[in-house]
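User: Structure please.
Assistant: Input sequence and predicted structure:
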Amino acid sequence: MTKVYIVGAGPGDVELITLKGLRAIKEADVILYDRLLNEELLTYAKSGAELVFCGKLPNRHAMIQEHINESLVRYAKEGKVVTRLKGGDPFVFGRGAEEAAVLADENIPFEIVPGVTSGIAAPAYAGIPVTHRDLSGSFAIVTGHRQAGKDDDLKWESLVNIETLAVYMGVKNLPYIVSQLRRFGKSPQTPVALIHWGTYDKQRTVTGTLETIERIVDEEGIENPSMIIVGEVVRMREKIAWFNEQPVLQTALK
């Protein structure tokens, strides 16, 4: 029976996918998958399944969003079981809601399969909890890359009051993010971590403060994909870091 599964594949470690997500991979006639997906997951596809790459790079798309939407509709109307496989969670900066809305407009049955999002998993693998009874009772997920003309839509004056911030896709805009947080009152000594390729064997983490992190990131050559974590919880890394990073970058919180 025709159905489209919009699946969150998790942040990178293949074992973090859900059982339901893995079943959707195994049952699919067609899998449309993204760039940041761990392609080892595709080895679970059944024999003969069609694999369609939909990856996006900044300013260069293998398949633009409109074509992805059209492909989901076309394959479903051909009577195929379609799995749309996304890194992380499809509803956390993953455009899953946009794709689901297109399917709903076409009366195509679909199912959303949540995934482990990198804003929680990457810091966990770096020994950083996003909440902590003594350090953080509030947590916000923030985009570090808005559509053109919308960068000022974020309410930075409100975000500074949240104890832990997880910023996605923010490396390019790190100077702007730091300046906004400091402008609205975050202490220059607020700890910051960047986790590059979180949950992969190649994960690297650097830590600093709002005062030092731009220099540290530049010196260490940290690029996207990286999660930015802002808040006192970053200090927990010094005690509970557990994942064997390659290479380990231990930058003191000075």
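The chain has a mean pLDDT of 92.
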